[in-house]
Amino acid sequence: MDFDVIVIGGGPVGENVAWRTAAGGLSTAMIEKELVGGECSYWACMPSKALLRSGHALAAAKRVKGVVGGSLDAAAVLERRTGFTSNWDDTGQVKWAESENIHVIRGDGEVTGEREVTVGGEVYRARQAVVVCTGSVPKMPPLEGLADTPVWTSREATSAREVPESLVVLGGGVVGVEMAQAWARLGSKVKLVVSGDRPLPKFEEFVGPLVVEGLEEDGVEVLLGGRASSIKPGELTLQDGRVVQGAHILVATGRVPATKDGKPLTIDDSGLVSGVDGRWLYAAGDVTGRALLTHQGKYQGRAVGTAILERSRGFEPKQWSAGQAWADHVAVPQVVFTDPEVAFVGHTAEEARAQGRDVKVVDLDIAVAGSSLHADGYKGKARMVVDERTRTLVGVTFVGQDVAELLHSATVAIVGEVTVDRLWHAVPSYPTISEVWLRLLESYGL
């Protein structure tokens, strides 16, 4: 029952840690209480994007003259979604793990001592490290009647077998806006309740209104300033007295780390948990509270796996090396897969100024040859935030059809600290939407 490394949580983050350490020759066990592959594979990233993709493809086709007709087959969309989840069967994932010399243990793992994990009464010990990758769980609001009301969370929203006749979505974050649009395009009558003056409030201020415009074009009724006070089956009451009704109510008010108290485990950039002697306890992914995004968690997982390997060989991971997740602080990319898409990396202008940076903000409409070819009447916006002292990018936001594929270039520019003067010589191909980079730099003053 001894291993070099024990990973608690078999989602994408835990899989990356376990693969890294096992490939490096350390005996590795991975504990999973539900499905190997985790939330992302079965109830989040993959099924949600599968639900959205067909509607996006159809809408994109209709924006080009010469395309006639077309409609969505909801049953086929749901079947395609289910294909991406392997019908919620993790057999393939388990086979992959075992083929990589990862020992899969079924059950709920709990750290019960130094280098000790207990699963269903069985005690396992780690010679090198224990890594907590337990992810996050839905954050439920303090609503009167919630305990007695069956509601949807993100899991039910992504795994439903039929299109609901009507749906009330509470919450204007990423899950809220994505699921509102997905189900509206599949035929549900959707109402989105947003507590503030715009959805996606953590993004640049122009993002939310553009997303609202897209949602309303799909028939979503968006209720702003809608703070909920109570709930009962099929009915949500707001503080201002408005009553919102629907066959199902999706509560999408955020997520919290999956720890006993819902608080994150504080880590350093190599994943070591703060306040634990002996340098044996690590964490990665949502449970750290750093960036609740699958790709960022996988990045942290790769850093943790590398750090464990290096320390097992007597080396300390160096700054900027693969054993340090320093990008968490400067270049976290995120895409909201609505239509229009939102692609963002780095810091907003407000965040950059709060850090004391002298910044110049460049805003413009995405109106280049590539975008006009991409869609008739293409609508989109871009923002570039430049640190004037270093003349490097610290934040970039794109909103528009298919802008997600522009994001990695912005991420590379920020991570690489590429100056605007050097970026000028990265010539965008014609005619693509990437031409927007040239327009941004021209607007900056080059």
Outline:
The chain is 31% helix and 24% strand. With 446 residues, it is an alpha/beta fold.
Describe this structure in words.
The chain is α/β, with parallel strands linked by helices. It folds into three domains: 2-43 and 85-137 and 256-327, FAD/NAD(P)-binding domain; 146-253, FAD/NAD(P)-binding domain; 340-444, 2-Layer Sandwich (Enolase-like, domain 1). Helices cover 31% and strands 24% of the residues. It has 14 helices and 21 strands. Strands 1, 2, 3, 4, 5, 6 and 16 form a seven-stranded mixed beta sheet that branches. A five-stranded antiparallel beta sheet has the order 17-18-21-20-19, sandwiched between helices. It has a four-stranded parallel beta sheet with strand order 10-9-8-14. Strand 12 (235-238) and strand 13 (243-245) form a beta hairpin. Helix 3 crosses helix 7. The mean pLDDT is 97. Its EC number is 1.-.-.-. It holds the Pfam family Pyr_redox_2. GO terms for molecular function: oxidoreductase activity.
Low-pLDDT residue spans: none
Write down the CATH topology of the largest domain: FAD/NAD(P)-binding domain
Helix content: 25-40%
Distance between the termini: 63 Å
Number of helices: 14
Q: Give the beta-strand count.
A: 21
What is the gyration radius calculated from CA atoms? 23 Å
Task: Let me know the average pLDDT.
Answer: 97
Mass-distribution shape: globular
- How many structural domains in the coordinates? 3
Helical/strand content category: alpha/beta
The CATH superfamily of the largest domain appears as FAD/NAD(P)-binding domain
The major beta sheet can be summarized as: 7 strands, mixed
The share of residues in extended strands comes to 15-25%
CATH architecture of the largest domain: 3-Layer(bba) Sandwich
InterPro entries: Class-I_Pyr_Nuc-Dis_Oxidored, FAD/NAD-bd_sf, FAD/NAD-binding_dom, FAD/NAD-linked_Rdtase_dimer_sf, Pyr_nuc-diS_OxRdtase, Pyr_nucl-diS_OxRdtase_dimer
EC number: 1.-.-.-
Keywords: FAD, Flavoprotein, NAD, Oxidoreductase
Protein name: NAD(P)/FAD-dependent oxidoreductase
